[in-house]
Design goal:
This protein has 325 residues and is α/β, with parallel strands linked by helices. The protein contains 9 helices and 13 strands. The strands form 4 sheets. It has a 5-stranded mixed sheet, with helices on both faces. The chain is globular. The chain binds oxa(dethia)-CoA (UT7).
Length: 325
């Protein structure tokens, strides 16, 4: 008997109220609104912690819970029906207990399994792949797939090569077993890969005095286009569809020029690429659900549509998936 497919029932997000516009950086860095906007596509981002301000007490779990409540409400699923919570984050509340465990308690998902995964900016695609496997294998029926990041905790506000890029936010997808038995709907494929030999291009130390995110942006850029394009081709092939069949490409939002280069490489028209980096910057594992929500709210997630997700993060980690709505 063919195994069950998993479907995405809903998505919910949360972003902090504080808007940090590009202009703000001009007051203390050798940069400009114009440089940031043209080189990255970013105009503003939301942050929990403003540069130089005392650290806020809001946590990745708090933000994840706010996004999860929206997602559960939209799905019409009570917290008590959630079997598991998988949180992708590089800004966890603690090494342990996991951010997912805090969310389990705060949401009231009684008895649900909960764990965090570390895949940096491809975290959402990694969490989705794990959740999908658990649903398909029958281990779980309903799983929260969470990306929640307080990147502002990890910024060196003196490093113009990184601090202008990132923003804070959270996004949650409710993944559920599709009991209809249909094979043409739901998550059709998930592809994961890594290349640890390039770990020093993008990293965040867990120990020691300096705990700032560091990146060799220009080198990451070139690998990002190559690896994300390749991951798109793999996911599409494994799903048994063609790139021409893709209705929407929802890439990790790291740089508008990376997204455009991937679309060009894959011959996907720009109109099919969901981009909201101008509003949020790079929110790491939250960027795909933030873009998914936007597409959903403006009516682009239509019945029958084929959606291609792709992400790349420190590691390097690379993940992609095809979802037939
Ligand atoms: O989410 C995980 C994956 N992350 C990514 O995919 C990010 C990938 N990288 C990027 O998005 C881009 O490489 C950056 C936005 C980080 C940098 O853009 P770039 O076009 O690759 O610039 P670059 O690093 O080649 O630097 C060009 C120039 C340099 O000056 P010189 O050496 O030509 O005089 C930099 O020092 O731009 C300078 N520069 C800046 N100038 C003004 C770098 N950052 C800034 C800045 N403002 N913020």
């Amino acid at each position: 008997m063919a195994s069950t497919r998993a479907k995405i029932l809903s998505v919910g997000t949360y972003v902090p109220d504080t808007v940090l516009a590009n202009k703000f950086f001009e007051s203390f860095l050798d940069t400009s609104d114009e440089w940031i906007a043209t080189r990255t596509g970013i105009r503003e981002r939301r942050v929990v912690n403003m540069p130089g301000a005392p650290a806020s007490s809001i946590s990745a779990a708090d933000m994840g819970c706010r996004a999860a409540r929206v997602a559960l409400e939209r799905a019409g699923v009570p917290a008590s029906a959630v079997d598991g919570i998988i949180v992708a984050t590089f800004t966890p509340d603690n090494f342990f207990p996991s951010t997912a465990c805090r969310m389990q308690a705060d949401l009231g998902c009684k008895g649900a399994f909960a764990f965090d995964i570390s895949a940096a900016c491809s975290g959402f695609t990694y969490a989705l792949a794990v959740a999908n496997s658990m649903v398909v294998s029958g281990q779980a029926k309903t799983v929260l797939v969470v990306g929640s990041e307080i990147t502002s905790k990890t910024m060196d506000w003196k490093d113009r090569g990184t601090c202008i890029l990132f923003g804070d936010g959270a996004g949650v997808a409710v993944l559920q077993a599709d009991e209809s038995g249909r094979r043409d709907k739901g998550i059709l494929s998930c592809y994961l890969s890594s290349d640890g030999s390039m770990g020093d291009l993008l990293y965040l130390p867990a120990w020691g005095g300096e705990r700032f995110l560091r990146m060799k942006g220009n080198e990451v850029f070139k690998h990002a286009v190559r690896l994300m394009s390749g991951a798109c081709e793999k996911a599409v092939e494994q799903a048994g569809v063609k790139l021409e069949d893709v209705d929407l490409l929802i890439p990790h939002q790291a740089n508008i020029r990376i997204m455009q280069a991937i679309a060009e490489h894959l011959s996907i028209p720009e109109g099919k690429v969901v981009a909201n980096i101008h509003k949020y910057g790079n929110t790491s594992s939250a960027s795909i659900p933030l873009a998914l929500e936007e597409a959903w709210l403006d009516g682009r997630i239509r019945d029958g549509a084929k959606v291609l997700f792709v992400g790349l993060g420190g590691g390097f980690t690379v993940g992609s998936a095809v979802w037939a709505v």
